[in-house]
Recover the amino acids of this structure.
């Protein structure tokens, strides 16, 4: 049961249902490839290691289009696989501009590993039957579950968000708030019961932060 909840997708509220990808008009495809190229250039300029992945379409309307595999963002990250390029760009920026400074400020240590439950997953919102597809179904979302500090201390969203350590609570809230400024949607354990153990960030329709 816990594992099922842990793997559940997330509800970015206020979003409309979106249709599965379909054949694009040439103008649209050109615009999209220009945006992807710009995103690749941004990653290169910011010295973020990545590999472009071939477009993949799966049954059920799921897809990973214009996705990249991050290989080096300055901090090792677990379970990070296909991500849309804009999601990857914001994730790397979030790590550099928000996670490390917040860890220095509140915990006095560097984060040496970010733990996630992953990115792509062909599933509906919160894995509920009949619900629309989650942003995870488009490789456009990431679920962050914890952080390991220099020295080995491990901070988890599940234990830390409402835990006893005030500095850990502040650190987690700081990185969540900073995520809301960089991603379209940011959800925390304060959003609903499905997110008791992770922060969900996606580049779908926003802004929404809770
Ligand atoms: Zn999620």
């Amino acid at each position: 049961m816990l594992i099922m909840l842990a793997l559940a997708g997330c509800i970015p509220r206020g979003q409309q249902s979106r249709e599965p990808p379909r054949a694009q008009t040439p103008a649209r495809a050109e615009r999209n490839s220009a945006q992807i190229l710009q995103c690749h250039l941004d990653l290169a300029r910011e010295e973020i290691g990545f590999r472009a992945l071939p477009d993949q379409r799966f049954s059920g309307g799921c897809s990973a289009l214009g996705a990249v595999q991050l290989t080096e963002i300055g901090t090792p990250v677990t379970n990070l696989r296909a991500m849309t390029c804009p999601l990857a760009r914001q994730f790397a920026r979030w790590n550099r501009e928000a996670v490390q400074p917040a860890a220095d400020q509140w915990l006095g240590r560097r984060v040496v590993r970010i733990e996630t439950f992953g990115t792509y997953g062909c599933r509906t919102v919160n894995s509920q039957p009949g619900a629309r597809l989650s942003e995870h179904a488009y490789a456009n979302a990431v679920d962050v579950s914890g952080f390991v500090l220099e020295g080995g201390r491990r901070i988890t969203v599940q234990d830390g968000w409402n835990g006893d350590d005030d500095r850990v609570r502040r650190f987690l809230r700081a990185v969540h708030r900073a995520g809301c400024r960089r991603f379209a949607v940011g959800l925390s354990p304060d959003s609903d019961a499905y997110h008791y153990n992770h922060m969900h960030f996606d580049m779908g329709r926003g802004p929404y932060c809770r």
Residues 85-107 form the longest helix (23 residues). The radius of gyration is 17 Å.
